[in-house]
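Sample log: 2-oxoadipate dioxygenase/decarboxylase.
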Amino acid sequence: MTVQPFVSPDLIRQRFSKAMSDMYREEVPLYGALMELVEQTNREVLARQPDIARQLDSTGEIQRLDMERHGAIRVGTATELATLARLFAVMGMQPVGYYDLTPAGVPVHSTAFRAVHEEALQVSPFRVFTSLLRLELIEDPELRDFAESVLAQRSIFTAEALRLIAQAETAGGLNESEAEAFVLQALETFRWHHSATVTAAQYQTLSAQHRLIADVVAFKGPHINHLTPRTLDIDRVQEQMPAHGITPKAVIEGPPRRQCPILLRQTSFKALDEPIAFTDQNQTRGSHSARFGEIEQRGAALTPKGRALYDRLLNAARDELGDFPNEANAARYNALMAQHFGEFPDSVEGIREQGLAYFRYFATEKGLAAGGLGQSSLEDLLRDGYVKAEPLVYEDFLPVSAAGIFQSNLGDAAQAHYGEHSNRQAFELALERATIDELGLYAATQQRSIDECLSRFAR
Ligand code: OOG
Ligand code: NI
């Protein structure tokens, strides 16, 4: 008997991402319309701005652009979260970062499962923003007990998915046929269900406490609630959405429009109410809205210094606005953001000289032709044009933006005030492992590219 080799986790993730996209396109017709709009806009940008095309080509991002998606799910128990971590690990995805959404009145805390090495990200940048409901924040003990008992009865993984996860863990990987089965089985966890696990009245009670609680507790599984493509021009897509029958939220989250994109800009549109059958109804008579659409534009990953500047400018603009950004104050918000962010350098050189972002260093054509140069410093190589610096793309999320996305899809009524805040320790206890610090990952990628450049020319 020949032993079949393992399929690399990166390829399993690439296949899973494709399968998820196909499933979502079938389930949510607007997703298909949005994907077309984003693909068309990206083509236009690349044709109109050859410098962007060149930059994406030299970093390799051009090859992953069309594959680029992030999804989001919300789970209800520690066991669900810990098992998800094991499921994602089969696909080479690790929990990166900790996000606390309670300051924004959303009773969850979250992490992002994603690949961590630049080479793995290149094969598939697929990531999933994963939130754990904080049931301890439900004040009514009766409702909390009810929610806990409903969650305790469900299993969000198929038996076969659990078996394949265990198999991958003990054997150290999955072979071709196991990997194929795994993708299909894992997909089931993220599927939409038209029937709820509670009665219509129970759903109402949960929803009255917080719409998000109903979304997590009342269903068989953590349906994927959006799948977000990456656009090269978010303002243009936002502008064009209405003509395609899509109504975007009032403002784009994140930094304002700039020459040199930083971090992450996002916008979303509300999904329609979807028909649901509650357990006391034979046919679908109720409804629930959970699924929405979102697009994003990614820019440079900021260093702690750059991030502190970003946070300060964002807070200053928001403080001056004096309210959550909304339809009525959108124009003023955009003006305030542009005004405050005038302080943030907007050229690659300016950002690099002030140490505001992480970079990757590449040998230029001149550098490739030159070969060994003896001992030169990185700054020498840059100055003489042997090496060029490209901003490292941000692979993570932003808590203020995430809160804005949650809010716009839950409605303003969803704003609550929680006394208890950030609890990373409790989150990691539930996850059964620590979350990875994203800044360390960016610094490591940057360092690897510096080492490679220096060793190339040191000969
Ligand atoms: C997640 C919202 C956050 C993002 O892109 O910041 C998010 C959710 O609604 O479950 O997806
Ligand atoms: Ni999102």
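Observation: The mean pLDDT is 92.
Observation: The CA atoms of residues 37 and 237 lie 7 Å apart.
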